[in-house]
Automatic annotation (TrEMBL), chain A:
The keyword Transferase does not apply. Pathway: Protein modification; protein neddylation. Belongs to the ubiquitin-activating E1 family. ULA1 subfamily. GO terms for biological process: protein neddylation. Regulatory subunit of the dimeric E1 enzyme. E1 activates RUB1/NEDD8 by first adenylating its C-terminal glycine residue with ATP, thereafter linking this residue to the side chain of the catalytic cysteine, yielding a RUB1-ECR1 thioester and free AMP. E1 finally transfers RUB1 to the catalytic cysteine of RCE1. This is NEDD8-activating enzyme E1 regulatory subunit. Keywords: Nucleotide-binding, Nucleus, Ubl conjugation pathway. It is found in: Nucleus. The keyword RNA-binding does not apply. One of its GO terms (molecular function) is nucleotide binding. The lineage of its organism: Eukaryota, Viridiplantae, Streptophyta, Embryophyta, Tracheophyta. InterPro entries: APP-BP1, ThiF/MoeB/HesA, ThiF_NAD_FAD-bd, Ubiquitin-activating_enz.
UniProtKB/TrEMBL annotation, chain B:
Belongs to the ubiquitin-activating E1 family. UBA3 subfamily. The keyword RNA-binding does not apply. Keywords: ATP-binding, Ligase, Nucleotide-binding, Ubl conjugation pathway. It catalyses: ATP + [NEDD8 protein] + [E1 NEDD8-activating enzyme]-L-cysteine = AMP + diphosphate + [E1 NEDD8-activating enzyme]-S-[NEDD8 protein]-yl-L-cysteine. It comes from Senna tora. One of its GO terms (biological process) is protein neddylation. One of its GO terms (cellular component) is nucleus. This is NEDD8-activating enzyme E1 catalytic subunit. PANTHER family: NEDD8-ACTIVATING ENZYME E1 CATALYTIC SUBUNIT, UBIQUITIN-ACTIVATING ENZYME E1. InterPro entries: E2-binding, ThiF/MoeB/HesA, ThiF_NAD_FAD-bd, Ub_act_enz_dom_a_sf, Uba3_N, Ubiquitin-activating_enz, UBQ-activ_enz_E1_Cys_AS. CDD domains: Uba3_RUB. Catalytic subunit of the dimeric E1 enzyme, which activates NEDD8. Pfam families: E2_bind, ThiF.
Amino acid sequence: MAEPKVKYDRQLRIWGEQGQTALEKSSICLLNCGPTGSETLKNLVLGGVGSITVVDGSKIEEGDLGNNFMVDESSIGQSKAKCVCAFLQELNDAVKAKFIEEYPEELIETNPSFFSQFTLVVATQLVEDSMIKLDRICREANVMLILARSYGLTGFVRISLKEHAVIESKPEHFLDDLRLNNPWPELKSFAEGFDLNVQDPVVHKHIPYVIILVKMADEWAKSHGGALPSTREEKKEFKELIKARMVGQDEDNYKEAIEASFKVFAPKGISSDLQQIINDNCIEADSNSSDFWLLVAALKEFIAHEGGGETPLEGSIPDMTSSTEQYVNLQNIYQAKAEADFVAIERLVRSLLKKVGRDSNSIPKTMIKSFCKNARKLKVCRYRLIEDEFNSPNLPELQKYLTDEDYSTAVGIYILLRAVDRFAANYNSFPGQFDSAMDEDVPRLKSTAVGLLSDLGCNGATLAEDLINEMCRFGAAELHAVAALVGGIASQEIIKKLHYLGSSQLITRQFVPMSGTFIFNGIDHKSQLLSL
Amino acid sequence: MADASVQSSRSRDLDKLLLRPGNLVGPRFEPGPEMRDDLQTYARVLVVGAGGLGCELLKDLALSGFRNLEVIDMDRIEVTNLNRQFLFRLEDVGKPKAEVASKRVMERISGVNIVPHFCRIEDKDISFYNDFNIIALGLDSIEARSYINSVACSFLEYDSDNNPREETIKPMVDGGTEGFKGHARVIMPGITPCFECTIWLFPPQVKFPLCTLAETPRTAAHCIEYAHLIKWNEVHGGVAFDPDNPQHMKWVYDEAVKRAELFGIPGVTYSLTQGVVKNIIPAIASTNAIISAACALETLKIATECSKTLSNYLTYNGAEGLHTKVTEFERDKDCLVCGPGVLIEVDPSVTLQKFIDLLEEHPKLRLSRVSVTHRGKNLYMQAPPVLEEMTRSNLSLTLFELMGKLSKDVVNVNGTTTKNDQKISCLRKLSVVFKGIDGVTDMDTAGGA
């Protein structure tokens, strides 16, 4: 193996070479390189993103040495962007690193087109007004934006882009696609070739559990007017019937069948999440439709017709007790059906492409295949404009959070993180930024927060005094450990985003990004995601 | 804010937290410059492991006001570390992790002193670990966590009401990651669950039944494990398989490919072979950064009480969406490691040798190669040879005599036990009571009644 491949071995095991290529093709812009920004980029540079551009207009002060690992004593008075950029370059020479010595706020005001050259912009420690402006610019230019902020023992991370559709998400506890509740004819006839009463004990204990369940379900249906077990008693009885077929104590295949019998009881058809996606109004296929929504349109047709209410079969089976030969045969049965479903979907996709006036081969086979394999697990994440959220948050949710014990601290932090920016706009400093003003800042912050809440439509809502006091105590401090944590989360979300982007023509859309606003609570770690 | 004429001290940001009174803080938080100075001067933290978590921990702690750090790690730097262990460069490959990591952090942060220890955690005397106020764990193995946990818990003493003596509590923070997931926890032995109380959180690795490997392989991993566990011994009988020897690995890979072809099984690759044989855990920089930062923050809180503490287990999962959760686990009241000690009743005539034999048969303990210490004094030591020789004569003396003729007291024993078919080192605290001896307690009761 070549050195770069070895270097990335531990992450290639997660996202594969295509995922790595997606990272290597990306260009990232960082706004403000204090510890939150530097730590975010550090994790991305180590992972091997294509290029980084660090934007920061400030000079290094002594105070920066206490919270930022990427500046050092010898660089006091020099450009922070330059110094951080040099350290990051040292971490990975495969990354193209450059810096721009300019304040992000000025760049946002004077040169909005600057941002359109990047794959993704990560903006740290911006105040509300700049966040709103930058978000509009990025949305317009179709550039992904990640906002991150550390503030005392608190912070937040927020993603912003129009839509993020995940094809190949990897949910951990997703059920295998075995269709034991709805077997297709080939699987049924394959199962008929097995005899559960076979005399040879070695053969008996190597019948795959999938076959046992198909046969037992068939037997049950025959004696129950075509229905499968549905009540608790029936399910229990079904399991007892399987147990009764065991001839020895060591028959793992029967134990597996009993354990997996719930797969027979599972409801047929598609999940409500998927139902929602195929009913989305983006589905009307036209020449402006993205590849993703064209595929979804084809899927909808398939489910209604060829699929008989089901998605295309995934085609893989889990490991199970079996002879090698029968296991391979069973695998072939599943793969053949998956292939047939794929062919049907491909035909639908090609004709849809033609219908909307696109080249019928403009969506590659590999992508359609991956789409079929993961059709059950599609996910669409949408993000509101920051401005919309800030001006008119989802009020019922906000009110729920304010009174819910699990959420009240997190939403308190959310409100206070916004209130400190209003405060700063009014008083020219953050609450508690200077020791001398601590006593008057606490009531000022409180009235600012109450004012904000009432502007948002929560008249009469209050926040915990202790939390307001703590927020003043924090005085806009950027603590290294908090910055490393918030930056760590930001970088992890960025990696998920980059996989999405790099895969627009290919197949690895692997990880579902977070939705909503992540509020970091470093006081007791009861952090929350808020959907406002 | 560009107009900030804020004090330009190096602890500008940290001072806000340490110098100002707060409302959501621990009961012993005493804000002020003394607190900050004491943290710098007196607080001593040991970082166990200088890998993905350890590198981050050293940086995070050094930038959180700690100046006296030590780090222990037995490994040398490998190329596969470089995607996340940010203190290492390509030219460092082959050098001890602990040494390079210490050097890099000290180069960048003046005033911080980090002492590296390039050795196994078991190589250090137990007393080494008692020198630290807090132990931060950045490990990737259950065995190592279990060992450090048993060491930290061995310092714990209980008073006569079975309450933990505060000055003997050795706090630990522990982090762990796998891919996009991780955990951070705070362990206050005697107060919050120790690693052993919640050992069920770490289920043992699933092993394939040998008969599946030998007769009915179905997956690529089955073929690889067949080559690794069965075929290797058949062909190389006597030569131990070395996962770090590329020729060995290549041989296993080639054999696995042959077997897979024979059975028509797809998916054997060199990368998978390494993954299966070495049980490689995928790792990325961001998760390590998140978990280490949480651990460093908790370390700072334990040292200063400048905020509430994590109580007591944080899980993080970024694989699908983002989920964090704090769970307050409960102690296992019968825990052999952090409890008041396993009660052992013995006759005063029992010799130390007989006592050691008893521990081997004890159903809860099953300890072999036992060394025994009492109140810091070595009664019998298995190693090193010079200590063994010095303490050997004690074996024929009675334990009662060796323990200063007390009616009951605690002894610490160190030995090996078997867990999931693996031999592991462990420390146990035993509460020894001598049968038929009227101790001080009895006299008190008689006098007071």
